Amino acid sequence: MNIKLDFTLNSAYERTEWLNNYIKNFERPLTSDELEMMGNYLLWGKSTDGLNEVQRKSVQIETRSKTWDEKAPESLEGLMEQPGFSEAYLSRFIAPTKRQRVKFSREEALRSAPDYARAQYINLFHEIDETDFLVELWELAHNKRSKEIRKSLVDSLSEETKERLSERAKHLNQYQYLKMKHLLVELRRQQFFIKDSYTSPVQRDRVISAAAPSPTFGDSIVVAPIGFKGDSPSDLLIWRPLSLLNPFSFTSEELAVIRKRLTNEQNSTATFDWREPEHVYQFILQYEELRDAADEEDRLGTLRFMVDTLDFYIEFAQLSDLHKDILDRKIKHEKNVDIALYINKKYGKSYSNNYISTLFTKKIIPLICAAAKTHFDILERLDKPEDFKKCASCGTWLLREPENFMRRARSKDGYAPTCKKCDKIRKMGG
Description:
The chain is mainly alpha-helical. The chain has four domains: 12-62; 106-196, no CATH class; 223-383, no CATH class; 386-427, no CATH class. Helices cover 50% and strands 4% of the residues. The strands form three sheets. Strands 1-2 form a two-stranded parallel ribbon. It has a two-stranded antiparallel ribbon with strand order 3-4.
């Protein structure tokens, strides 16, 4: 993405006039990402009444607070992209006329739960009540709500606990309040994950068969987006850590080698793509077998390079320690219930085995796929130094994009001087 929008303009009219003149100078077709960014640029512009189209609820576009965004409707295409999707599921699927909100009953849950789940519920309910009480205290103190805290919630906490939370609420800033509100959503979701661990919800059938042969990766397979991590001269240039992946770390000759490699890859039809969650999911499920096969493979094979490529993207994704622990144990084919016991003990969580599966398929794998996409995007733009911005805190050169830097209309380039990662550390007092 190589566009520079003027974020000093606030009104929709000014932005429309400016954008009409700006796109006249483009000699190439605009990409879908660039068109989407320009569309959002116009939608956030304010009219004479001081509101933009998003505030009027005329449209909905993705925001940073994704937890509270309205969820997209379920689609057949969306279902088919889920790991483990089976067409047999469609025969028993009936789309509801409207979304049914399920109310969780604590009394019913404690009455029907087995002993191990009942203990998890008690700890989780206590954590939910404390977090809820803390959030509502902050909202009352900052005029975010007019109603008093409900009596049932107040009565569920001891006087000592309420005093401790009241003192803590006085020192919360807005960022910490939003984090607590996000945590409250996740804790309430965990109630249903625990319930699913001992009831019989509809389970998705797995596509992969235990008897399926391990895939072989030879000369016949084309791997996107940039092949695999080999040992050729161009590989040594491409497969670098993020800190060394910027236009200022290469000579003009090296950039030419990378550009030639990118051109060759883009002219191919991929049969395996590191940016596709389903592809990565299937590869990880057979990771140990593939690594063993790679160790036995002769030096002419490419399987060992595929395994090394996955290791590279896992490192590039900068997973948290918790996510790394889950991934390591999924690779070793440990059961979700055993992984949950380990994670809960090590990190003081109350995750159910179903939630471990959700983290693996909906969080960890997408992060690895996003790392592959980011790596390729950086390589594509290495010959455009103006697309990169150096973080004033950590010194890392990153793409000048909203994914890496916060918007700031008053700055010269429309972005904050520090990257999002450093900004997050600073806000958390790190």
